[in-house]
Design goal:
homotetramer, 175 residues, alpha/beta, Rossmann fold, LDcluster4 (chains A, B, C, D), glycosidase (chains A, B, C, D), hydrolase activity, acting on glycosyl bonds (chains A, B, C, D), LOG family protein (chains A, B, C, D)
């Protein structure tokens, strides 16, 4: 299973960093591959914990930051394209999207996943802009009702749901 | 000036079609080039009116529908990539983004424009999902406060603002 | 008709610049839209002449040079992706590819056109690396024999052939 | 170390399949990650052998064939873009490119690697179109002389050279 992880590109608070690490620890037993869009901000927190847990980590890097230093264990894919374009590849490649909280970049990734019909799990009460997004779109993002976003305060519950493995993508054909 | 136009990929109501045509007519005097992402749904309405007004129209086509029949006057660019990836090129290429109303695809284009620091003008009271988006994000999309989205009920006012030409992009470096 | 033009990214000699301008002048009567990948080197020569002739010019810009100064008449599309990726969009969007001579970038564009089944017209005796390419691949690029590259010393003949308009793309499905 | 592998998209002969498997076996001791562009033709031969050797394999899939069945051990990245565009990502992401022989797709990948300044190792005497390419470009692809392509008949020698690990990319800035 491949999990695309949307996470803030800026330094996380201690609380949200801990929530993110907790998600990684709790999802580790079902041994997913994690896809992330970089190695900075909250994404770095996730990657570091995933390495500690021995998970396979693939980074889809935007051209703006494709030459950053990386831990030897991660597999960098250089998208050759800009921040939002790399998010398209990131989201499209996952079986599911998990949002750990962030700003507009993370919100875009949630919307991309919705438009592509991917199952979406989003952590709330992060203190980040995605909390507002969650209130704005408690279920669906548009009137097509493609997939219902599932919000959780507890990252352990997201891990549990994902490891149970009974979520499915919906085929979409609009755009 | 290049205006990226975000508009619904599905058949518009008579009212919203008229609002869209009105925008095109009123913006024509300053002779912008219009960029759109296809020739179906509300996008088709806009393209047809733009041709009638003699405007240059460029379409950034997604690979899923790159072979549709087109009027001879438009210039098709085949992005070679999927729906959302073509939206990245569409938004990035404009000096400004105008949303005429739509679903998640249009909402993604607004968010892309915000993340790229482009001026955004959005028509409200369309009866489409973007009306809800407008209520959810009355000003900014995240706490970076990159650009303030400007909402209008009257498409003529948007045209006027754009023709006045004093909007500016903000450089962004996050993602 | 849309002509994708592959041309050197470096300063041309007087001879090759003249050959390129001659092609533009002679193809002008059938009023094609020209697509190019930038506004530097031999590409700039072509764009300047095309503007003089009143042709519509669209540039597919790579992210590395998306902010260069451009004449007001051209329509810039910001691909958001790197040099070679923008070449894919450039070639895919044309009805035909014309090579006016260049280095590896131009050679890649010829190969992309071949792989996509586009008609290819290439100017030889330019003094550039594509002269060697022409000798290496006098007809086909691989044993699939997708499209036969047509080589010309005289740019006027290429213009004539193109304006006659009886070339067709071949559908390809490999890769 | 990440090795981008360019290989024919069509069924290989027994000889070339054996050469490809031999390369994989001999490069395994230095434990590279292999990147390929699909799971068909000669690429499938390489992937199957790499799995047998326990190597990590990442596939950069073109949108035309992103839904093919894959072995559980490989990590599929859905580029969301067409055949040649996925080749750009494939080549850009590798520390080095190895060509095991093929047609125009493989030749394009060699040219992309050259344009990006990547070290290139190419197997000759494959009976495929790349043999002709090797004769056409025995050293450099254009007069910039970016990187010297290194040709080998023996796949074991390529593996040895790569495992020795003293090849370096050259930074390029043209296009």
């Amino acid at each position: 299973m491949i999990i695309s992880v949307a996470a803030h590109s800026e330094e996380p608070s201690r609380e949200i960093a801990e929530k993110a690490r907790s998600f990684v620890r709790k999802v580790s037993p079902c041994n997913p591959t994690l896809l992330l869009g970089g190695y900075w901000g909250l994404m770095k927190t996730v990657v570091d914990e995933a390495i500690k847990q021995g998970l396979t980590v693939v980074l889809i890097l935007p051209i703006e930051r494709e030459n950053i230093d990386l831990p030897a264990q991660v597999i960098p894919i250089r998208s050759g394209c800009e921040f939002r374009c790399r998010s398209v590849i990131l989201v499209r490649s996952g079986d599911v999207l998990v949002s750990l909280g962030g700003g507009v970049g993370t919100e875009i990734e949630i919307m991309l996943a919705y438009a592509m019909g991917k199952p979406i799990y989003a952590i709330t009460e992060t203190g980040l802009s995605t909390d507002h997004f969650a209130r704005a779109f408690p279920e669906y993002i548009d009137d097509r009702r493609v997939v219902k976003i599932r919000y959780f305060n507890d990252p352990g519950e997201v891990a549990e749901e994902i490891c149970r493995g009974n979520m499915k993508s919906v085929e979409t054909r609009f755009g």
